[in-house]
Amino acid sequence: MNHHAVARHAGPGLNRRRFLAAAGLTAAAGAAITTAVQSRAGAAPSARSFRVPVEDVRHTRTWMAFPDSTSIWGNKLSGVQADIALIARTIAKYEPVVLCANSGSAAKARSMCGPTVTVINSIPVDDCWMRDTGPVFRRDGYGGLDTVGLNFNGWGNKQAHSRDALVAERIAAHVGVPFTYADLVGEGGAIEQDGAGTLMATRSSLVNRNRNPGMSERELERAMCDAYGATKVIWFDGVYGQDITDDHVDATSRFLSPGEALVQMPVAGDNDAYARDARKQYDKLSVSTTSSGRAMDVMRLQGPDYNKIRSTNRDFLASYANFYLCNDAVISAQFGDKRADEAARATLSRLYPDRYIEQINIDRLGTGGGGIHCVTQQQPVA
């Protein structure tokens, strides 16, 4: 089994090993992202004065997207829409949620989400992965807020993305905050930040010719640090070419605070590429230091036994680590391995004692290879 972010955007009936042949990429989508990279509109505030905060800060709102493409999702679409609506309603108990929907599906989104979720149809979308398509919000510590776009290119031109390539800039305009494009191509799920100068990422997602051809690891580090207001990157090797994201870090390793990280560990019997990668991520973090030279404190979050979860899909993503922090709550998944689900709840409760732990069933989204963090993007309070 491969237990990670699978060929979630590849189209109906495909597994992660066949997604490249059916991505539905359009020439216009590739042109859109090329134009976006080339047209850096105006001078942005100094990236060194703005920094992406750690995710446990207070939020103004959460941004999400409502999928409506049968060419991407096939007969799985209605189930994925139901999971997106469940996530939106759950977060809306704690903070405002704005859901971007296309004009033709906005009414359905409103009916599924109910009155607590704000649905807008002014920002068109191709899919639901707002973590990767949305803007990355930054703060300057003095009440200033701006955004940076990561030049989303459909995970290396694996899926049509002409609308999603523009989501970041359009949300920034909707909010009315400055926007600039980063000097790299990537996705929000590919980069974790501690809010104090340290990033972590997989080489497989970013040091990859399908996103950043010709860029060295050092050049990428500089671009990432400029975008995030950081000074150090902790690199993991990752897993190349086995899922559409090329192994996003946010399904395995997360920052809790400066100097503190969490890694979801596989069960002892798992030894596929992703299980080996997770163990390597833990080992690497355990001997790493932060940008300030502090030794990393690394927690373990035990993953479920894939023989005991509800889903029998071999490409299912069962990531507790892909949780989302919102105001006063942690929104996490549960997968039907009751012992592991309860252990994950206990771990999250210990790590976030002042937050309510919401565990929800998002199996349809998991079958598509994603989780709760993948479909959300926080707008921090300035």
Automatic annotation (TrEMBL):
Keywords: Hydrolase. It comes from the Bacteria. InterPro entries: Peptidyl-Arg-deiminase_porph, TAT_signal. The keyword Hydrolase applies. Pfam families: PAD_porph. The keyword Hydrolase applies. PANTHER family: AGMATINE DEIMINASE-RELATED (PTHR31377). This is Agmatine/peptidylarginine deiminase. The lineage of its organism: Bacteria, Bacillati, Actinomycetota, Actinomycetes, Kitasatosporales.
